[in-house]
Amino acid sequence: MKGSKPRNRNVLPGFGLSLGFTLFYLSTVVLIPLATVFYRTAELSWTEFWDTVTGARVLASYRVTFMTAFCAGLVNAVFGLVVAWVLVRYRFPGKKLIDSLVDLPFALPTAVAGIALTAIYAPNGWIGSLLEPLGVKVAYSPIGITIALIFIGLPFVVRTVQPVLQDMEKETEEAAVMLGAYRLRTFRKVILPELLPALLTGFALAFARGIGEYGSVVFISGNMPLKTEITPLLIITKLEQYDYAGATAIALVMLVVSFLMLLVINLLQWRMNRRTVSE
User: Fold this and answer.
1) CB-based contacts of 56, cutoff 8 Å, min separation 6
2) Which among 147, 189, 202, 231 has the fewest CB atoms less than 10 Å away?
3) pLDDT digits (tens, 9 = 90+) for 236-262
């Protein structure tokens, strides 16, 4: 018809088909397996479920898993920012090599990482033998677990912060310096607010990876019940004992707690992004 406005068409047509495929794919890969956890846990009565997920050994594994993952995420947030800053803002020999080494934990099998870290930090290892006379025990302790999680979680922070640093305009920093702001104040007032959402995302990814990590931790932890036993190992132990309901009950608790923590982190990130846009 004359005078009618032309309809806006997407460059890539087929929204209905692509949306249907997306929902089908997510349901098959994510929702159905997670629903199985709820289904198998329903085989337990409430009393059996509560006794399973609140046992002394299980609570100790929760504490070790979440505390080490949280501490590793914080360390990675700090040093991941430093690594990303160096890779973006400076030129030096071997920069490309270091940049490629950041991704090594992604490609390296986690079992290999666990064996290597255990060999280094064991009492008779290269670093462990130096720390042992000082009374510092790394391997077979929560410290060793945290180091393993730092190793596998660092790339998440670096690769999340690095693109944001590359897109930041240096003119804003230079203007702050010309107005008399010191370096620390410039970083705190100008740079950090821009990096904080990406930094929080990297922390969330490293934290989530640390909670479910198994291969790199199982060797260096020592797997001592009530001391260094992680929850993923406890789930594997119950599966080997054919206690499928008990394993899924513990997995359900991990799933719910992880989801709530990631939800809180995403809400904080959303509020920070909204505040940055409004300013």
Assistant:
1) 226
2) 189
3) 988 888 888 889 999 999 888 888 887
